[in-house]
Amino acid sequence: MGVVVNRIGLKWFSFLVVLWFPLSSWAEVEPNNIVTEANSLAIAADSKATNISFGSITGTLSTTDGNDYFAFIGQAGQRVLITTEVVSGNLNTKLSLRDASDVQLNSDVNSGPGNASQIENILLSATGTFYINVSRHAGEGDYNLRLFVISDGQAETDTHPDDSGNSGNNNALSKAELIAPFGTETSGQMVGEPTLGISTAGDSDWYRLYGFAGESISVSVEALDGTGFQPTVSLYQADGTLLTEDSNSGATSSASISAYTLSANEILYLRVSGSGQGFQAAYGLELSSQNRSYQTELRQSSTAAEATPIAVTTDAAIGTFRLGQAT
Fold it and tell me: Which of 119, 196, 265, 323 is deepest in the core (most CB within 10 A)?
């Protein structure tokens, strides 16, 4: 799975702990069973992965205490990924993202691995306080709640079917998620929005991209602070032929493919894997392109508000006919 997050001004429990141990979890403070009792969830920007911030807190749910509330400050235009990891007992959680009036915006029971709840890639439409409600769906036990905030980018949609209707996550080439470099340059470099992923145990995350003859592709994968994840990034053709890969180059919890030049127009596939996988193995992936043949959309444009303008030019032969092209 993957995630992207941003630096935002939030409430801090302790400045030193958040600074030095960004994926360490605070424990909930009871009572936090209703929205007015919500614990503040501190979020810190990652030092390496662009535009990703995250926070974590632990909690306990039982038959006598089945509801926990947490609060964070979000900015309009950010995207969030929220997940729970059950760390003890037979707990099955339900997640709910709620606005400042405690109105539900999105919810999930167990779309993540195992009995994990996961809300992913949700676009925040307003600036202000948001609430996360973790409730008991079944069983009892302890959980770890993680919030990832993406200021400019997206999170992998690891729990939903792909474009071909394959169910489950993006753990195979046939279920790869589409990513692209964004921008209007055709001769200069275009840099894609970062993508946030989480590489759970035994997992590989697959992404697909459209490449053009003469284009140079560069990819970087950065493990988030404190994760222990040692990534490998591999580039494949559609038939599964490995073109190139890099595994934790320089032992810096990062991997990269630099300026791989394509000889033909084709669909290519990226695989992110590695060691030290688990719920804490979060990473940021960035794709960039040099000498791309076509203009591409400026950024994720899944809504009318995010629409990319298409440049048009007058055809010299026809005169009044105007042509625009984008991928």
Answer: 196
